[in-house]
Design goal:
126 residues, mainly beta, 7-stranded mixed sheet, 48% strand
Length: 126
């Protein structure tokens, strides 16, 4: 299974970016929970947010709550991460992943994801 994150770039603090996670054709993305994670240089991977496989309910890390929004686009077989009011501390490589778990509360755990995509760099300047 191939997932690909895209849409990263360089933006000033306070700006916005929209990331996309696309799946290869034949992979029924809508049947999976999808999570976004990020990793900054020298830091461990961090959960950003996720959308549940069944209900499309979402949850977010406290650090991004109110600024980031995850949405599905089933017509494009993709999941988007809209990031607003970006801060320098949001600078990281952002990756998406797909999970079979039906337990909503487990979505922040990286171990719940069987499929991972290549990341995209997001750099926020101050």
């Amino acid at each position: 299974v191939q997932l690909q994150a895209s849409g990263g770039g360089l933006v000033q603090a306070g700006g916005s970016l929209k990331l996309s996670c696309a799946a290869a054709s034949g992979f029924a993305f809508k049947r999976y929970g999808v999570g976004w994670f990020r990793q900054a240089p020298g830091k461990e991977r961090e959960f950003v947010g996720a959308v549940h496989r069944n209900s499309d309910s979402t949850l977010y890390a406290d650090s991004v709550k109110g600024r980031f929004t995850i949405s599905r686009d089933n017509s494009e077989n993709a999941v988007h991460l809209q990031m607003n009011n970006l801060k320098p501390e949001d600078t990281a490589v952002y990756s998406c992943a797909a999970s079979n778990t039906i337990i909503f509360s487990r979505l922040p755990r990286g171990s719940m994801y069987a499929y991972w995509g290549r990341g995209t760099q997001v750099t926020v300047s101050s």
